[in-house]
Amino acid sequence: xxxxxxxxxxxxxxxxxxxxxxxxxxxxxxxxxxxxxxxxxxxxxxxxxxxxxxxxxxxxxxxxxxxxxxxxxxxxxxxxxxxxxxxxxxxxxxxxxxxxxxxxxxxxxxxxxxxxxxxxxxxxxxxxxxxxxxxxxxxxxxxxxxxxxxxxxxxxxxxxxxxxxxxxxxxxxxxxxxxxxxxxxxxxxxxxxxxxxxxxxxxxxxxxxxxxxxxxxxxxxxxxxxxxxxxxxxxxxxxxxxxxxxxxxxxxxxxxxxxxxxxxxxxxxxxxxxxxxxxxxxxxxxxxxxxxxxxxxxxxxxxxxxxxxxxxxxxxxxxxxxxxxxxxxxxxxxxxxxxxxxxxxxxxxxxxxxxxxxxxxxxxxxxxxxxxxxxxxxx
Length: 379
Ligand code: COS
Hints:
The chain has helices at residues 9-24, 34-47, 68-81, 83-102, 105-116, 229-265, 277-305, 312-337, 347-356, 365-378, and strands at residues 122-125, 141-145, 148-159, 166-172, 181-187, 193-198, 207-218, 222-223, 267-268, 271-272. It is built from ten helices and ten strands.
């Protein structure tokens, strides 16, 4: 996608360097031990400098500010290779972004250099059993007590639960609804902070509950002002939603490449699969979905990098379209591969599983449609 007009020379060099490194990298994915694989990817990405894309320049980052196009390029390339590589990278960015975007200098110095060097694995602890799409319904409470807050509640579906060193926890400090939420940087080692029930998914990665029980956190670990939690969550998601679209592009791009290879080499009815017009129709639809997704993803990233304060409409549109499109592409790839497509160990079988959650996490497709519709109607 580097032929798109949204990139500068640094982006092109970054993408080429990452592609070259991935061709040599020997990190192995083990679906039976996703936690170990995730840790191995964080280590390898850090040692080779790729996690520097996740933090601002002052703290060891590649560019002065978080650059969304670089995050997207990284996720697209990593997802082409491995869902866990993409996951490990994405979580370092998502879990630390509230600190990078809204934390004070002390919090930034404390955490961000270690995010870049891989010593601090991060998590974004927003969702609860009854507050996934409806963030304003968060029930976890943070009560002020002297120079600390005492947090009580249970988070669920938290990526990196049990693996993270830092949890950015969203909790209620005030009134009901969006205005009563605040964000906190909680060290995993804090008394009263413990991982709960593990969640197993069709594309294994570290995921589970997080229990906060009488968990005392210094007031200085609050990110932003009291009551800013909802806006911090939304602004972070504004940045990262287009990167989810980019990961979808990575899976879809790989599915398309594998399908093209297969369609050219597989023979049936005395000719290559690619000679059948129905195959050609599928390949054309896949190619158009990949290209259209890329245009929306990199447009959203480019607008944010150009300094837009809010990019909710564009990033929601990018995530929604690119993840839905990638679902179609991976499904078509399975169909083209026939029985091989649903066979364990085949790449398209894995991509089909890997791509599914992207239409749900960081705001389901239906949420993205709400965001786009609201802004379009209000315009
Ligand atoms: N950036 C900054 N501020 C934002 C914002 C954004 N992108 N979006 C909304 N806000 C602000 C609004 O301006 C409003 O502020 P004021 O009260 O000062 O006017 C406040 O936040 C509340 O906004 P809104 O009324 O739109 O909130 P809703 O409760 O209606 O929620 C949706 C809106 C549904 C869009 C939101 O809850 C959402 O995105 N949910 C999905 C969350 C998600 O991704 N969950 C997955 C878990 S993370 S893996």
